[in-house]
Amino acid sequence: MNPAYVISKPLFCIAAIASLAMCACSPSSPAQKNATDIRSFSDLQNHFKYRGDGGMLVSAHRGVIEEGFPENSLEGFGRALESGPLFFEIDPALTKDGHIVLMHDLTLERTTDGTGKVADYTLEELRRFRLKDRFGNITDCRIPTLEEAIIWSRGKTVLNLDRKGVPDAMKLALSQKLGAQNVIYTTHTGAQAKDLFEKNPQTFFAARIKNQKQLEDFKKSGVPWENVIAYVGQKIDAGNAEVCAFLRSKGVRCFISLAPTADKLPTPEEREKAYYDAIMSKPDCVETDRPDEFHAALKSIDSLKIKYGKE
């Protein structure tokens, strides 16, 4: 298993998948070197446990922003993993015939060359469309199923399944069928967490706990803290400091998302400064649309301290 960074130191596209698999399996490939191999639930708990050592995990939000690599694609995940150890926030969606695919939007226009609602197509029909990258370029990549993503992820990374309308019971059943130990579930309320935990006590959660009210709500779920990482907002500041202190006292990592803020800045220089500021605020986990740029900032943190000044 790859150690976390410590900031004090610094019909599917078969040809594409075959090429990706060869790259991922090569001992010399960056993606393989950055693999996180989770083989048991205790591995999962240990990987995400807060230890107070400055370790920082990175979550790739749907993959990577790069020409030719669409979001929520296996090709994009493989590319993102070349930058450093990651886990992935991905978006399950339900097809007309009851298959789970990866798609953020309810409709196809932004991310594919198709039109209409995902839910109005069968899996076979969706396979005909090609994915676009985030610049609008049509690629040769096709819409993957969640099952394909889980199989691809084995021995490489952890998948965080966002809430996009697919019943939790369906996602859990698929994970159990595949024997997946490297899958975690986003939950927005204590009731959602309780329902999943009662179905399977060996379920790990990315829980939304941004304030005291949400903290009290989650406490009612009965989920043990060793089964949780907590999304606390877009930054750690005075508004959530008390909540973060409590969570860390229970061994829970506090993570923030830069996708709505720093990732959207127009220039690499502006983003670098924003990533530096985020790193210096010492979150335990950072979600980003640009894991390549964020990892670069992490790796050069000592020079960035000289460039921008220690805080």
Order of helices and strands: EHHHEHEEEHHEHEHEHEHEHEHH
How much of the sequence lies in strands comes to: 5-15%
**What does the overall shape look like?**
globular
Q: Which value, in Å, is the CA radius of gyration?
A: 19 Å
- Side by side, the strands of the main sheet go 2-3-6-7-8-9-10-11
- End-to-end span in angstroms? 31 Å
Helix content: 25-40%
Overall structural class, as computed from helix and strand content, comes to: alpha/beta
Ranges where pLDDT stays below 50 over 5 or more residues in a row are 1-28
Count of beta strands: 11
Q: How can the largest sheet be summarized? A: 8 strands, parallel, barrel
- Whole-number mean pLDDT: 91
Treating each run of at least 4 consecutive H or I residues as one helix, how many helices? 13
What can you tell me about this protein's structure?
With 311 residues, this protein is α/β, with parallel strands linked by helices. 36% of the residues lie in helices and 14% in strands. It is built from 13 helices and eleven strands. The protein has helices at residues 14-25, 30-33, 41-48, 74-81, 123-126, 146-153, 168-178, 190-199, 212-219, 241-249, 268-280, 291-299, 301-308; strands at residues 5-6, 55-61, 87-90, 92-94, 100-102, 159-161, 183-187, 205-208, 228-233, 254-257, 285-288. The chain has an eight-stranded parallel β-barrel, surrounded by five helices. Strands 4-5 form a two-stranded antiparallel sheet. Strand 4 and strand 5 form a beta hairpin. Mean pLDDT is 91; it is low at 1-28.
